[in-house]
Amino acid sequence: MKARPGVDAPDHRGRTGLDRAGRELDRNPGVVVPDVELTSQGWHVLRRTTFDYRRRDGRWETQARETYDRGNGAVVLPYDTGRGRVLLTRQFRYPAYVNDHPDGMLVEAAAGLLDADDAPAAVRREAAEELGVALGPLTHVLDAYMSPGSVTERLHFFAAPYTPADRTGTGGGVEEEGEDIEVLEMPFTEALAMTRDGRIADGKTILLLQWAALHGPFAPHPGDMADAGNAGT
Q1: Chain segment 43-52, per-residue pLDDT in tens
Q2: Please, what is the Cα angle at 155 between 69 and 202, to 5 degrees?
């Protein structure tokens, strides 16, 4: 039998055993994976997995799902509370453009795949490449599956302070990787307003900005709430 790249022979990224993902999982006794088919392998991997699933009433049924495996990623919101500003990016996103976005130019928090790095190292790398900034201490906000119906990616969310003195370059991304990124430094209040009027339509960015307003660096302090209440009496 001819060797299959990515299965029993190295593919263009040196990977083998790509059809083994999920077969050995036993954390859920109501799911058994007998078959995984590698349907596409570019830089990332598309699989069709057949599994037996035990319904809540005890009946077993066979289901199949396609999953897109692009690895895990990390995203960061750099903020400057002294000046009330945040650093974001703007870049062309073809999937958004082909799905009704006016021009495909999305305003986003800087993000990237982990690759061989851990999550903190990855966000520092992306901040340097995309934004041209060296981040201060990282705050881990949360981890989330952003599209769990079809994409395996788990995204690690961070925030970090910066000042004008921390700007190390112009940013813009890595041209050899096709990146052409505009750096946006804007008032936090404007960025938050953009999540309400649709100018920011990226889920990870909306989540980080709302966290910053409710629980993060721009959240009201208890004393501020008391002052606001006293002002109305």
Answers
A1: 889 999 999 9
A2: 100
Please give the Cα distance from 124 to 69 (Å, whole number). Answer: 23
Token pair listed for 128: 């340097």
Residue holding tokens 């709430």?
A: 225
Q: Checking DSSP bridges between strand 139-145 and strand 154-161, what pairing results, if any? A: antiparallel
Strand partners, 143: 156
31 vs 61: CA distance, rounded Å: 10
- Beta bridge partners, 108, equal 89
Phi, psi of 149 (to 5 degrees): -75, -20
For the purposes of burial, counting CB atoms within 10 Å of the CB of 23, is it exposed (0-12), middle (13-18) or buried (19 or more)? middle
Yes or no: say if 123 and 115 are a contact pair by the CB < 8 Å rule. Answer: no
The whole model's pTM is what? 0.90
* Arithmetic mean of pLDDT over the chain: 92
**3-state class of 71 per DSSP?**
coil
